[in-house]
Amino acid sequence: MNALDFTGKQIWVTGAARGIGAEVARQCVALGASVVGFDRTFPESELPYRCIELDVSDQVRVQQVTKELLAQCPNVDILINAAGILRMASFAETSWQDLNDCFSVNTGGAFNMMQALFQQFTAQGSGAIVNVSSNAAKVPRINMAAYCASKAALSALSHSAALELSQYGVRCNVVCPGSTDTPMQRMLWQHDDARERTIAGFPEQYKLGIPLGRIAEPSDVAQAILFFASDMSRHITMQDIVVDGGATLNA
Predict the structure, then answer these.
(1) Quick one: pLDDT at residue 179?
(2) pTM of the entire predicted model
(3) Would you call 147 a catalytic residue per the annotation?
(4) Structural domains in the chain?
(5) What is the predicted pLDDT for the residue at 81?
(6) pLDDT for 28-58, tens place per residue?
C-alpha cells in the first residue's frame, strides 16, 4: 500500500494560485486526489484542479463557500492552509494596517477555514489539517515584525486547534518553510546575486545562511506537507517541522 496514494480523497488548498500552495495542489492531483484550490485570483487559467476565488480573511464569505461546497460533496479529508502575505517595514515604520493585514490573512485565514470545517471534521471522526507557517515564526527577522508575529500566532493557533480536534481523530500539524523560490521570495530579491546572497546569509541583519547551500523549491516544502497530510504521519499531531536547509539551526 502506498501511503501517499490520495485516490478518492477530497483535499482543499488555500493559496493555490501560485507558489507552495499551487505546487501542493498539483502534487495532490497527481496522487489521485480531488482538489479544490482557493485564492483571491487565479492568473493561470488552466490549473489541474477546481479553482475558487476566495479571500480567506473574509469570515462570512468563507462560511458561505464552505457550506456551498459541502452541499455538493459532503466530506473533506484534508485541509491545507498555504495562503499568506508579506508586509515589509522596520518596526518603527510598521503600520497598524500592515499588522492587521498579516494577521487577517496569515493567521485569520487559517482560523476561518479551520473553524468553517471544524464541525465537518468532528462529525467525520477523521481528517488532517496542515498549516503553512514560516521559519520566521521561530527566529526574529529585521523589517518583518508583522509577518513574524502573524506566523508565530499561526503556529500556536494550529497546536491549540489540534489539541481540541485530537479526541475526534483529526490531526493538525505545521510546516515552516524558509527561503523558497516563490513569487513572494522573489519580491525580496533586488539584485542579480540575490539568490547567492540569501544562501550566504546577511550577518548585518543577524540572518544566518543556508547550510545545505541552496534555496528550496516549492516541491521541497510540498513533500513535507504531503507527509503530514498522509497516513505516514497518522500518529503525529500538534507538531511542526522546519524546511529551510538548516537556516534556523536548532531553533
Answers:
(1) 72
(2) 0.92
(3) yes
(4) 10-182+217-243 (3.40.50.720)
(5) 98
(6) 999 999 999 999 999 877 899 999 999 999 9
Alpha-carbon distance 79 to 231, whole Å? Answer: 14
Task: Determine which one of 49, 147, 168, 206 is catalytic.
Answer: 147
167-181 pLDDT per residue, tens: 999 999 999 998 766
Name the least confident of 48-62, 148-162, 190-204. 190-204
